[in-house]
Amino acid sequence: MVSQIAETPAERRRLRQRTDAQRAILDATEALLVEDGYEQFSMRRLVERCGYTAPTIYRYFRDKRGLIDALLEERIRRLLARFRGIPSERDPVETLRALAEEFVRFGLENPTHYRLLTAYRPESEPRPPAAEEAEAFFEQPLEVLIRDGRLVTKDLEEAKQCLWALLHGVISLRTSRPDYAWSSSLLATSLQALLHGLVRAAPGANPADPARPRSSV
Q1: What pLDDT shows up at residue 206?
Q2: How far apart are CA 73 and CA 156, in angstroms?
Q3: For residue 151, what are the β-bridge partners?
């Protein structure tokens, strides 16, 4: 058995310095994005805000995209924690509803991060791993519904696009027009309409009501 060599004080100090530097850079990045948006964000302003030089920033985060993705990864992990709190034994339709509510809540609470997450990126630039995990949460109940013959389409991608189009619309409208008197039940009613058209009622259930609205977001 090979014994592990304990970290030296110098190694622990370097690790702490690296962690502190990364945290300071990410915090400054988030502050600038929230204050001025992505369009006004620049590495020069980031250097001024965080106090670290551009070479140091690039050493920790390969480029501007890497820096933004690291910030998104961290924030989406919080959304994943919410997703994991949703009971897995519930009906897949209710799972979809709960996931949708948490996703919309995330988008409304983090409008800048949401815009960055949904912005166009070339196929050569993969999304943050946490974004892939978040999408997989929606795929699981949809796959169950397809397997059980309850989804009107057998195309998983089509079903995901229908759901995302609705959720993206709600988030985008409410964040771009905060002055408008949006209905408090906008998401619940819209989601009910989508699920009613997309999902067949479970055996023994009321066919006119495959999924009941829940609380508004």
Answers
A1: 61
A2: 25
A3: 199
